[in-house]
Amino acid sequence: MNLSLNHLSVRTTDLDGTSRFYSEVLGLTVGPRPNFPFPGVWLYSGSHDSFLNAVVHLIGIDKTDPAGLQGYLGDRDESTLRGSGAVDHVAFLAEGLTAMMAHLDKLGVAVRHRTVPSIGLHQMFLDDPNGVVIELNYPAAEAAGLVFPT
């Protein structure tokens, strides 16, 4: 069996804010989404020509008409929709560390840095508006000589 991660889904009560985060902070773009019976947004990394590039699926909650979401994915208690639950974080491979650091600083996004020398990886951790932890992985060579806050 050959598996690869297809996408991350986030169920949110703040569809606009969460969509804005993934667009403005990570540079993903809003693209085509099937006509599901509940609100949502698909965010793409790369071309919109293939649904395989829709790496983040946002699931909106319509409090005035929850039946579509409940029937399709089931009901969830809103109080459980904070953080990553049992999933600790979701990671993306990335390039352009210094440009992303400047971008996040300009947006005022708090970041935690870690470097794993044994595998040549520099990690940046940040939180989306729902408390989901996002990890951005860069080649450690991009971090060489840079000073990171502790």
Q: Report the biggest beta sheet as strand number plus sense, adding barrel if it closes.
A: 4 strands, mixed
Secondary-structure-based class equals alpha/beta
Quote the beta fraction.
Answer: 25-35%
Domain module count: 2
Identify low-pLDDT runs: none
Give the proportion of residues in helices: 10-25%
Mean pLDDT: 91
- Compressed to H and E, one letter per element, the order equals EHEEEHEHEEE
Q: Could you tell me the number of beta strands?
A: 8
Which oligomeric state applies? single chain
Spatial strand order of the main sheet: 1-4-3-2
User: Based on CA inertia axes, which overall geometry fits?
Assistant: elongated
Quick structural overview:
The protein has helices at 15-24, 67-73, 97-107; strands spanning 8-12, 29-31, 40-44, 54-60, 90-93, 112-116, 121-127, 133-139. With 150 residues, the protein is an alpha/beta fold.
Task: Write a structural description.
The protein has helices at 15-24, 67-73, 97-107; strands at residues 8-12, 29-31, 40-44, 54-60, 90-93, 112-116, 121-127, 133-139. The protein has two domains: 8-80, no CATH class; 90-143, 2-Layer Sandwich (Signal recognition particle alu RNA binding heterodimer, srp9/1). The strands form two sheets. The chain has a four-stranded mixed β-sheet with strand order 1-4-3-2, covered by helices on one side. Strands 5-8-7-6 form a four-stranded mixed β-sheet, with no helix packed on it. It starts with 7 loop residues before the first strand and ends in an 11-residue tail after the last strand. The radius of gyration is 17 Å and the shape is elongated. The chain is built from three helices and eight strands; from the N terminus they run E-H-E-E-E-H-E-H-E-E-E. It is an alpha/beta fold and 150 residues long.
